[in-house]
Amino acid sequence: MKEIPAHVSAVLFDMDNTLTDSEIAWDKAAQSLWAEAGKKLEREIPLGGTVEDVVTVYRSDFPTADPQTTAQRMLELLRANLTEVIPTPGADALVRRLTVPRAISSNSPGQIVREVTTAVGWTDLFTTMLGADEVDSPKPAPDLYLEAARRCGAALENCVVFEDSAMGAQAARAAGAGYLVTIGPDARELGDKNVASLQDPAITQWNPQLK
Q: Would the CA dihedral through 56, 28, 88, 120 be positive or negative?
């Protein structure tokens, strides 16, 4: 297994469940969305998906639901459940230690990305932050990572990407990321290195220099 590069042009991060524990907020918001319609959520919501992915699943149970109204309500519920989001273990130390350009590329809406990073005190730590509504196609398409690298002035083959979902890992691969760190079991087989958390010694001891 290749070691994480010691010289990089940029580090690109997913947000939900990679840098912050916000995936639980998505789950609670989706459960509330179904509950408001008098039904229990029993379908699987794609890990690392978008608001639109939730709407697609919702309309499988409620075919007459208006997509725009449903998306707006999901966004409201998501925002209500993000009030107590905290960084994942090891995330704060990592993003503060890095001195190279860094970006967030998330399937969350851009406004949610900025609200979450502001809440955890990271507003000035990233070169750029992108949400799914700010590119043509969300993950698993490569657009978010291509745009993040462009804004960082970096070639993707010289970037390290951190992802927790298979959907996100597929996006990083499609974009041509030079090195992919996957976190947890969902994308274990897709990364150049898989860790249980950002507290893994391979991450806590990593201090890349600008390539």
A: positive
Give the residue from 126, 141, 66 showing the smallest Cα distance to 92: 126
Return the structure tokens found at 38. Answer: 């008098």
User: Is 80 exceeded by the pLDDT of residue 96?
Assistant: yes
Predicted confidence (pLDDT) per residue in 47-89, tens digit: 888 999 999 999 999 999 999 999 999 999 998 988 888 999 9
Q: Is the pLDDT score of 17 beyond 70?
A: yes
The pLDDT score that the predictor gives to residue 48 is 81
Cβ atoms 146, 157 nearer than 8 A? no
Q: Looking up tokens 């730590």, which residue turns up?
A: 125
Report helix, strand or coil for 94. helix
Residue/partner pairs of 199-204 with CB below 8 Å, 24 or more apart: 199/89, 199/90, 200/90, 202/3, 202/4, 203/4, 203/90, 203/94, 204/90, 204/93, 204/94
Amino acid at 184: G
Report the alpha-carbon distance of residue 178 to residue 155 in Å, rounded.
9
